[in-house]
Design a protein that fits this description.
Blueprint: H1 4-12, E1 18-26, H2 27-36, H3 55-66, E2 74-80, E3 83-88, H4 90-100, H5 125-133, E4 135-143, H6 149-163
């Protein structure tokens, strides 16, 4: 058991401190970053079970952007400069990339029903303009520089558990 002085010393030295950075990125820039740099943010990692959303759920996420509903942020761990591990939000990212790469035709929309059947390529001009102006919040977690790989893995596990 640690003494109060030992605990206080850890706090004073910023040991075990996490840094959070909050950023917003336009959807087209996010998709471009993911597609152009395979190390930027891996969302199709076969070793991790992500599961898949069906097309209706993916479509409703895209519709949320178009009608300006709040969308939960993506939580990342910065492994190296501009190289991220997704802690929370892989399904949202995959849905966005799938739509922007025309792998998703919108379906099951409840508000913008006139957009059902559209891919990104066939989205009407003004709907595309609205979507391209939308941003997604990214929360990047950075542990202290002296954290061990085991400590980092534990922190990521705790964050993922608490977000889900």
């Amino acid at each position: 058991m640690m003494t109060d002085d030992e605990i206080n010393a850890r706090y004073e030295s910023s040991q075990d401190r996490l840094i959070q950075e909050i950023d917003r990125i336009k959807l087209p820039a996010l998709v471009d970053n993911i597609r152009s740099n395979p190390n930027y943010m891996v969302i199709y990692n076969e070793s991790q079970s992500v599961g898949n959303w069906n097309d209706v759920k993916k479509s409703k996420l895209i519709e949320s952007f178009i009608i300006n509903l709040p969308v939960m942020p993506i939580v990342l761990y910065e492994k190296l400069y501009h190289t991220y591990e997704v802690i929370d939000g892989k399904k949202r990212l995959k849905a966005i990339v799938d739509f922007y790469t025309n792998k998703l035709a919108l379906s099951g929309l409840e508000v913008k029903t006139e957009l059902n059947g559209c891919t990104y390529a066939t989205l009407p001009y003004y709907a595309k303009k609205v979507l391209n102006h939308c941003s997604l919040s990214l929360i990047t977690i950075m542990p202290s520089e002296n954290a061990s790989p085991e400590e980092i893995a534990k922190i990521i596990e705790i964050i993922a558990e608490r977000l889900n």
